[in-house]
Write a structure and sequence with these properties.
With 119 residues, the protein is α+β, with helices and mostly antiparallel strands. The protein has one domain. It has three helices and three strands. A three-stranded mixed β-sheet has the order 1-2-3. Helix 2 links the parallel strand 1 and strand 2. Helix 1 runs parallel beside helix 2. The N terminus is likely disordered.
């Protein structure tokens, strides 16, 4: 429950709910699933399409975790028998997708110059 005076915005977790609703059967037992938080809606659609493509390429894949980390999406997948996906092509696609789904870098903070006080 939200604390009094604080606004709880369920929009921040929409992508987690949408993806988990569709892909819950692919989340491996004991794994986290989705922790994306407030990401652009188009990222949810891109991840959904990627997982649909992955299902055709690797029918026994399972989702360990898909989360936001350091301003970008991190995707951790495996198979039911292996901790990582053995196909190099699929791993390359995952790497390319992670590079595409990154937030723009923050501009550097302005440098504050302290002035000596006059007496």
């Amino acid at each position: 429950m939200a604390k009094p005076g604080k606004r709880f915005d369920h929009y921040y977790y929409t992508s987690d709910i949408l993806l988990f609703y569709k892909w819950a059967y692919r989340v491996g037992k004991g794994w986290y699933g989705f922790a994306l938080g407030n990401v652009p809606r188009v990222w949810t659609d891109v991840l959904d399409e990627f997982l649909c493509w992955l299902e055709t390429q690797c029918p026994d894949f399972e989702i360990h975790q898909i989360k936001m980390k350091l301003g970008g999406v991190r995707i951790y997948l495996g198979t039911k028998t292996d901790f990582v996906i053995p196909d190099e092509k699929i791993r390359s696609e995952i790497s390319q997708l992670q590079n595409l789904l990154r937030l723009p870098p923050c501009p550097p903070a302005p440098i504050r110059v302290t002035r000596k006080k006059r007496r």
